[in-house]
């Protein structure tokens, strides 16, 4: 087709595109207004969420899921909205998790609450295995902050976390996966020191052996355990070291009877 023919047809094509864009914008505006209209079946009140797809059936919805409005009152419409996320963990479930971890010898003050987010999942809709290493890392830092503050207050805790003076460096970690975790869920994670069975390993005062566990509130069970080795390191002298007894006492105070 000659180029001059294309040029002559361009205005018509442009008008069609503009018209289509206007209709598209109008449809979007109409839908947005429907979301705000209490009498509309698409109405969503502020702070609520709708279904994830058009075909989804609300778990707590009546057969007629359309909103109903009483014209004689100012009451909000009665309708059901799907809950995407569960309510906060109940005191009973938290108490059960706490008891399970304390029974395994974990200090209740070092328990870390780790909420599972959508980004933690892999293509199989389970928490990706590498995420547990990060969860245990965060729990370990919380554990260090706890015994550091017991030892010397907030300043000592901050020094431990920022690598000032004597602190800890992770040497190795081994994770034992027991159960897959899905979203949404909340894990309670904790750390404690323990003495290795090998007398040779136990004799190295520059090394500290740790155990960690992650407990699922949804499953009411332990979903992962970890064995870690950390090294005492003097950041001022840039070498391994043996910590002072007071710091060691604070560390071992976080271990229960089963260590």
From TrEMBL:
One of its GO terms (molecular function) is fatty acyl-CoA hydrolase activity. It comes from Schizophyllum commune (strain H4-8 / FGSC 9210) (Split gill fungus). InterPro entries: 4-hydroxybenzoyl-CoA_TE, HotDog_dom_sf. Gene3D superfamilies: Hotdog Thioesterase. It holds the Pfam family 4HBT_2. Transmembrane segments: none annotated. Residues 37-89 are annotated as: Disordered. This is Thioesterase domain-containing protein. Residues 61-73 have a biased composition (Basic and acidic residues).
